[in-house]
């Protein structure tokens, strides 16, 4: 039996009782998974037309999913012996899927939000087994994931690809957290971890050690990171106070899921505190959402200057229409997590600037 508790009225009352400018928050927000989340973790057969339209990423009912072919008739034994010999799984609308969609020739795909890299395949004769299939290389290139437009880099990413990290990088594009990320990120802590975390954050005044944003007004977006990835090693030298955005960008991060609303708050606080200043490409990547890094990287690859992070776009009446993730004001090009229309600007959503450049429209 699933219980859903609506605490929105409590939050609103809390905000009214506090002084203006001080936010009310709860340290823990209950995560409730719908039956579809459980179903997707096991793999669900889908029709292509049932997938959500309008994104370079693959989405089903607002959830980021992967597409894979369960039926491995003819190569089942080979795939079990070596996952690289199995059929590839897809993370984006790459040219392979686009070609099949145009020809109306889709195989029977299953959608999953499983993050452990295992996919249940069968031989068409009753045998089935979990196998570590490999990601489609065309998908990596389609998103320019971690610089995969470079052939040598694409091979490196192909070999080391982590679904846990991939889902975390694109978490702001989706409304729902994959159950696998939640289970993994909430396991392995010592019994008194909440007390340790609170004390560590208080000692740092809720200030991120990387970007410098002060989260005193939004403490729930302030994390404590284990540098060596070992959650039970709570020695002072192993703990680092970070905002959620900087946390998920750390090596050995545990698949931090940052919502679009959380990212907007962090960016707003950075802007208010004068922290959205970039002097190098490294600063740009540190201060922007990982989901647009492929779009930013391809502009860097094409020789464009570093973009302006968190730029306010205005209309003819000088009213702010939107605050975009990254923008090139001279070229009137911007990238944003959600679609935005501003006269005179080309504002691309996640992965769409990569596609535009790859098609030769923008140079």
Automatic annotation (TrEMBL):
InterPro entries from the UniProt entry: HNH_nuc, ZorE-like_t2
HNH nuclease domain residues: 195-248
Domain of life: Bacteria
Name under which the protein is recorded: Type II Zorya anti-phage system protein ZorE
Lineage: Bacteria, Pseudomonadati, Pseudomonadota, Gammaproteobacteria, Enterobacterales
């Amino acid at each position: 039996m699933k219980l859903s508790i609506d605490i929105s009225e409590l939050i609103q009352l809390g905000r009214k009782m506090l002084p203006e400018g001080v936010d009310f928050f709860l340290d823990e927000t209950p995560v409730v998974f719908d039956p579809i989340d459980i179903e997707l973790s096991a793999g669900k057969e889908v029709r292509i037309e049932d997938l959500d339209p309008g994104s370079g990423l693959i989405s089903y009912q607002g959830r980021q999913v992967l597409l894979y072919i369960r039926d491995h008739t003819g190569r089942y034994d080979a795939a079990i012996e070596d996952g690289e010999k199995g059929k590839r799984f897809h993370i984006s609308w790459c040219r392979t899927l686009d070609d099949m969609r145009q020809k109306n020739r889709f195989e029977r795909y299953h959608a999953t939000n499983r993050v452990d890299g295992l996919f249940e395949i069968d031989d068409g004769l009753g045998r089935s087994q979990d196998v570590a299939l490999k990601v489609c290389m065309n998908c990596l290139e389609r998103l320019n994931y971690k610089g995969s437009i470079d052939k040598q880099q694409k091979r490196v990413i192909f070999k080391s690809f982590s679904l846990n990290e991939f889902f975390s990088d694109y978490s702001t594009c989706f409304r729902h957290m994959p159950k696998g990320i939640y289970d993994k990120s909430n396991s392995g802590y010592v019994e008194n971890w909440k007390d340790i975390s609170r004390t560590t954050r208080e000692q740092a005044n809720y200030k991120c050690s990387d970007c410098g944003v002060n989260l005193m007004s939004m403490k729930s977006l302030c994390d404590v990171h284990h540098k060596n990835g070992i959650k039970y090693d709570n020695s002072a030298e192993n703990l680092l106070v970070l905002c959620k955005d900087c946390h998920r960008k750390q090596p050995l991060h545990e698949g931090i899921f940052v919502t679009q609303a959380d990212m907007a708050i962090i960016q707003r606080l950075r802007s208010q505190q004068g922290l959205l200043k970039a002097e190098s490409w490294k600063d740009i990547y540190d201060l922007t959402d990982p989901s647009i890094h492929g779009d930013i990287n391809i502009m860097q690859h094409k020789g464009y200057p570093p973009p302006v992070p968190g730029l306010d776009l205005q209309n003819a009446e000088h009213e702010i229409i939107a605050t975009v993730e990254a923008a090139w004001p001279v070229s009137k090009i911007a990238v944003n997590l959600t679609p935005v229309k501003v006269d005179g600007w080309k504002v691309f959503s996640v992965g769409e600037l990569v596609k535009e450049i790859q098609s030769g429209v923008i140079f």
